Amino acid sequence: MKMEEVSVSSLDNSKLEALAQDILSDLVEDACLGLCFEVHRAVKQGYFFLDDTDQESMRDFEIVDQPGLDVFGQVYNQWKNKECVCPNCSRSIAASRFAPHLEKCLGMGRNSSRIANRRIVTGNNTNNKSESDQEDNDDVNDNDWSYGAEKKGDALVVLACVKFQCD
Fold first, then answer.
1. What segment(s) does the record annotate as region Disordered (predicted)?
2. How many domains, the chain?
3. Closest by alpha carbon to 119, among 129, 127, 131?
4. Cα separation, 95 vs 81, whole angstroms
C-alpha cells in the first residue's frame, strides 16, 4: 500500500497507529545502526578509547591563562634572543640572520658560482697538473666575459693576443 494513494483521514485509528509505529521503528533502527557503524569504525581505526580520560590527568594539559605565563604555564620572556645553531659550522646566529648566514655558509647564494669558480682556479694553481689541464680551466677566469668597466687599452691587448694566436 502506497502512502500517496491513501489519505490519512480515511484510515482508522488502529491502522494509523500501526503506520506510525512502523515509521518510528524504522527511524530508531536507522539511528541505532548508524551508531553501531560509528562505534565499529572507531574500534577498528583505534580511536574509540581516546576520549576516555580522567579529570586528574586532564589537569596536566589545561591551558594556563595568567599574565606573565604562556599557555603551558612557563615564564615567558619576550625579550629573549632567538638564536639558531648553523648545522654546517655550528655557530650560534640570531634567527633574523640565519637564512643569509646559511646561504653563505653552504655556498648556495647568488655569488656562489663565482666563488666556486675562484676556488677551482685556486685549487688548480696549487696542484701540479699538466699544462693542458690548466689551459682548459683558463676560461673560468676569463676577463673577456666580465661586465665590469675596464680600460679600452686592456681590451685591445687581449684582442691583439687573440689575433696573433690565430695567425
1. 117-145
2. 2
3. 127
4. 8
Going from the C-alpha of 107 to that of each of 74, 100, 122, the distances in angstroms are 39, 11, 16
DSSP string, 23-61: HHHHHHHHHHHHHHHHHHHHHHHT-SSTT---HHHHGGG
Report the first-to-last Cα separation within the chain, whole angstroms.
110
**Domain membership of residue 121 as a residue range:** 81-126
Residue 164 lies in a domain: no
Q: What is the grid cell recorded at 96?
A: 633574523
Q: Which of 16-30, 39-53, 69-83, 144-158 has the highest mean pLDDT?
A: 16-30
Q: What is the mean pLDDT of the chain?
A: 74
The answer to whether residue 152 is domain-embedded is no
Residue 108 lies in a domain: yes
Decide: pTM greater than 0.85.
no
Q: Is 132 inside a domain boundary?
A: no
Confidence of residue 12 (pLDDT cuts 50, 70, 90): confident
Closest CA to 71 of 58, 62, 59: 62
Q: From residue 138, how far is each of 60, 69, 116, 117, 147 by CA, in Å?
A: 68, 63, 15, 11, 18
Per residue in 137-149, pLDDT (tens digit) is: 555 555 555 555 5
